[in-house]
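Work package 3, deliverable 3.1, input record:
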Amino acid sequence: MKKQNVSDAVIRRLPRYYRYLDDLHMKGIVRISSSTLGEKMGITASQIRQDLSCFGEFGQQGYGYNVEELRAEIGHILGVDERHRIIVVGAGNLGRALMQNFHFKDAGFLLEAAFDVSPALVGSQIAGVPVLDMSELERFVPAHRPDVAVLTVPQSAAQPTADRLIDLGVRGFWNFTNVELTSGISSVRFEDVHFADSLLTLSYRITVR
Amino acid sequence: MKKQNVSDAVIRRLPRYYRYLDDLHMKGIVRISSSTLGEKMGITASQIRQDLSCFGEFGQQGYGYNVEELRAEIGHILGVDERHRIIVVGAGNLGRALMQNFHFKDAGFLLEAAFDVSPALVGSQIAGVPVLDMSELERFVPAHRPDVAVLTVPQSAAQPTADRLIDLGVRGFWNFTNVELTSGISSVRFEDVHFADSLLTLSYRITVR
């Protein structure tokens, strides 16, 4: 599998391919041409072929793609079959909403625990997952080695909490704090969810000029 | 202001420019060169100049950009000063989390009401905003003409609720349902928030190959 120099734009499109192929697979569709897939996704067939060529050879000239196979291949490229371990740090409204509504398992993640400072939450369970005291991080993380921390703490706690988790060995951060986090360690990855960017894009599109 | 044929990629970068400029402005920075701004944002200076040239002339050769002016200009392009009206449809965990934590006002939106079917929620207030019964939509929407509906209903209700709101005149949807919505009306805009796409991008980056 080729994987060097894959552009950020291609990486960002992969989950979308995965989502569409998953949907087609659920609907019982076995084969699809790049042009039909492109039409559904609002991109060109040649863009699809070019994107996928970064990772190897898929599909057969004139026969299109086998939906189930391509879905599995892209899932593999994305690491969906890696069973990454994940923890939620900050079990306020947003952390809780994610735990109750987001299908971590479908994305290949095993949600192991949540952490919070609130005595009202510590000791409870959310969606069957235990909420532990933040002070337990120093014991839990080295023992369970989670791959990713969902960061849903208040803004003022964002960078200090990230630093603390990085010291404990966490390398992936799904960052909902709206704070731009930094780390001196090159293997640390921050994936930021900026709700405002999305709403402002919509604002642009509905603004009459 | 030029505005024709602005690519999707440029539109998606605008909120990011706005966010960085807002941050610089808050820090009291008055001027910034395209190269320094680019360094901060991880893009090239020529990319910035090219993006901004879609909308007019900004900055002065050799002097860089006036941070406050450029922030205001981009905010205007994004429609931040339009005071768009917004409603939340579905006041479950996620709807509630957004109402309590997201700064609608900073994005130029006036949050007017939330709607839900649950008798336990109807009549209450969340973050100072009234929760009304879903059956009130037919009265409320024509009277208040909200520009955007935040869609945080269950998946099975997503398309029917969107259809109902479109019939009532809503044209912008901030869609958190993970359902790909469709409409026969070309002026309707869907902005989808796919949490899974973001987590899968992170999954790709932390997967050791």
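The two ends of chain B are 47 Å apart (CA to CA).
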